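Memo to structure team: turn this sequence into C-alpha cells by end of day. - J.P.
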Amino acid sequence: MNPNTLSRRLMAFACLLTLAVILLGAWTRLSDAGLGCPDWPGCYGHFTVPTKADDIAQGNALYPAQPLVAEKAWPEMIHRHFAKAIGLTILIFAVIAWRKRGAQGHPRKQAYLMLAWVVFQGLLGMWTVTLKLHPAVVMAHLLGGFMTFALCFLAWLRLSGRPALAAPARLRRVAAAALLVLVAQIALGGWTSANYAAVVCGDSLPVCQEGWSQRLDFAEGFQPHHEGKASYEFGVKSLEGRTAIHVSHRFGALLTAGLLSLLAVLLWREPRHRALAVVLGGLLLVQLGLGLANIHFLLPLPVAVAHNGGAALLLLALVAANYRLRRA
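Reply from structure team:
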C-alpha cells in the first residue's frame, strides 16, 4: 500500500476516534463523572474499573473519601482508553512520517507536532484528575481535544491532495476571523461547563432571568484560580460569577452565529464555494437548534453531548474552508 494512502486512512480513523473522545469527554463531564476514577492512569489502582468484591474493597481502602461508583467510573475509563487509541494512531502516523522524511507530500513536521500535542493532551488529562477538575485545566483539556481533531483533519486534507481555491481577500479574512471567533466560543463553552454554569439562567430567553444585569461578577467569573480548594467538583464560584460566565457564552453565541452566517452568505455568492456554504449553514442551524434545546429543556445529557459534537463539526467546516480558500 502507498504510504500516503495508509497515512490518509490513519488520519481518517484518528478523526473518528477523536470525535468519539470529544463526545465521551462531554458525556463524562456533564454526567459529573470526571472524578469517577480518583487516580490516573488506572482506576482505583487497576487498569480498568474493578468489578470483583476484593478489588473494589481494596480500591475503596485506597480512596476512602471517594468510594467507587461504577456508573461514574466506567465513562471515565472508556474515555481514557479511547484517548490512548488516538495516541497510538498518531504515533504510527509519526513513525511513517519519519520513514518518509525524504519524500514529498507527506506532512512530516505536522506529524511530529501532533505527536507532541497528544502527549501534552495526555498530561492535561492527568492534571484534570490530580488537580480535582480545576476549571482552567478542564477547559484546556477540552480545547486540546478540539485542537487534536482539527490537526488530524488538516493532515487528512493535506494527504488527500484537496486543491486550494483562489478567493477574494475579504472572503479569506472573514473565514480566518470566523475560525478564531469559533475557537473563542468553544473555550467559553468549556469554561461554562467546567464551572457548572450551564443551567444558572434556567430556561430564560433571550439572556437570563429578570434582573440578570445587576448580578454579574465578571472578575470572579473569569478568575482562573481559587486558593485553598481541595476539589472543584460541582463548582466553587458564586451565583454572580456563574451568571457572568453564562451570559458571556450566550452573547458569544450570537456573535459567532452572526459571523458564521456572514461567511456562509459570502461563500454562497462564489459558485465554486457553494458546497462549503451549504455544509457550514446546515451545521450552524443544527448547532443553534441544539443550543436552544439545551436552554428550553434544561441541559438534557444527550442534547448537551450533541451540542459538543456540533461545535466539533463546525470547527472542521471552518478548517476546511480556510484550507481551501488560501491563495493557490
